[in-house]
Specification:
It comes from Bombyx mandarina (Wild silk moth). This protein has about 300 residues and is α+β, with helices and mostly antiparallel strands. It contains four helices and 14 strands. About 20% of the residues lie in helices and about 35% in strands.
C-alpha cells in the first residue's frame, strides 16, 4: 500500500525551524531557548516516512518530541509530557487492535469525515486528538496537538501498519526514563475569555516544573498575542493590588459624578440641588464592578 496521511495534513505540516519546547509543552522562541540535552533518540522508517522519537531535557524537565519527516523532506512535530506519552502508548494498543479487526478498505463504506475511531487526551490546558482515518491512500492515525488558544494545531500522520512498531519504540523510551511529570496532580481550571469593546483577553492556567501559572494574553492581531505570566504563589497579591486600584477608581468616579451633579456647599450642610446624601461605605461598593446601591 502506498504512503498515506500526507494528503490530510494540510498546512500544518511545515519545514522544521528548530523550535523548542518547555516541559509543560509550550513552544518558545529560539532566541530564548534554554539549553537542551538530548537523552535518547529512536528513528523509525515506516513506508516512505521517517519518525524520530527524542527524549529531551532542559531546566524545566523531560519531554518527548515526536517528529515526522515525509518523503519530500517536510517536517511536522508534536511534543508530549512523559505521562502523556504513556497514555498515548496505551491508546496505540487499542487503536491497533481495532485496526486489526477491520476488513479490507471499502470506498463505499467510509464515513463522510473519514474517521474510523477517535480518542482525546487532555494534559493541563492542552488537548491531543487521535483519529484513525481512511482516505484514498489508505488508513492512518492522525495525532493533533492543540497549542495556545486560537492558534493552529500541530499534527503528525502515522501509517496504520506502523502503530505497533511505534508503540514498542515509545515503550522502550518510557521504560528507560519513566512516566512521572511531578508537580500538581489535580485537574487545572479551564481557560477563560473576556471581551471588552474591541479587545479580547484570555486567561489560561498551565503547569511546569516551576509550578502552576496563569497566562494572561491579549489578542492584538489575527495571529499574534501579547502576554504576561503570573506564578500561582503571587495570585493573591496580584488580586489585592488589582482590587485596590478598582476601589480607588470607583471612589474617583463617584467623586467626579458628585462634582458634576453639584457637590457639598463649602461651609454648608446640604448639596446643591437637593438634600445631602451619606457617602457610600466600602461595604456598599462592589469593588470589581464599581456598583453602588441606588439611594434615590
Amino acid at each position: 500500500m502506498s504512503d498515506i496521511g500526507s494528503g490530510d495534513e494540510g498546512i500544518n505540516s511545515q519545514k522544521y525551524h528548530g523550535q523548542g519546547m518547555d516541559a509543560g509543552g509550550n513552544n518558545f522562541d529560539s532566541g530564548q531557548q534554554p539549553q537542551e540535552q538530548e537523552l535518547a533518540t529512536k528513528m523509525l522508517q515506516i513506508q516512505s516516512k521517517r519518525f524520530y522519537l527524542d527524549v529531551k531535557q532542559n531546566r524545566r524537565g523531560r519531554f518527548i518530541k515526536v517528529a515526522e519527516i515525509g518523503a519530500d523532506g517536510r517536517r511536522s512535530q508534536i511534543f508530549l509530557a512523559m505521562s502523556t506519552a504513556a497514555e498515548f502508548r496505551d491508546h496505540l494498543s487499542s487503536f491497533s487492535d481495532f485496526y486489526s479487526s477491520l476488513g479490507p478498505p471499502n470506498p463505499d463504506n467510509v464515513p463522510d469525515d473519514g474517521k474510523l475511531k477517535s480518542e482525546m487526551m487532555l494534559k493541563d490546558n492542552r488537548r491531543y486528538y487521535l483519529d484513525l482515518k481512511e482516505n484514498s491512500r489508505g488508513r492512518f492515525l492522525r495525532v493533533s496537538q492543540t497549542i495556545t488558544r486560537g492558534g493552529p494545531r500541530s499534527q503528525i500522520a502515522l501509517p496504520a501498519q506502523g502503530m505497533i512498531e511505534f508503540r514498542d519504540a515509545l515503550t522502550d523510551l518510557l521504560d528507560d526514563f519513566g512516566t512521572d511529570d511531578g508537580g500538581f496532580k489535580g485537574e487545572l481550571p479551564e481557560g477563560r475569555h473576556l471581551r471588552v469593546d474591541n479587545k479580547n483577553f484570555y486567561f489560561d492556567i498551565g503547569q511546569n516544573n516551576r509550578g502552576i501559572y496563569m497566562k494572561v494574553s491579549e489578542k492584538v492581531k489575527s495571529n499574534f498575542r501579547t502576554a504576561i505570566t503570573v506564578p500561582e504563589k503571587c495570585w493573591t497579591r496580584f488580586r489585592d493590588i488589582l482590587a485596590d486600584y478598582c476601589d480607588k477608581m470607583c471612589r474617583a468616579h463617584q467623586q467626579n459624578a458628585e462634582n458634576h451633579q453639584g457637590g457639598p456647599i463649602p461651609g454648608g450642610s446640604g448639596v446643591r440641588g437637593g438634600p445631602s446624601q451619606p457617602a457610600p461605605s466600602s461595604s456598599d461598593i462592589d469593588t470589581f464592578s464599581c456598583n453602588v446601591p441606588n439611594r434615590i
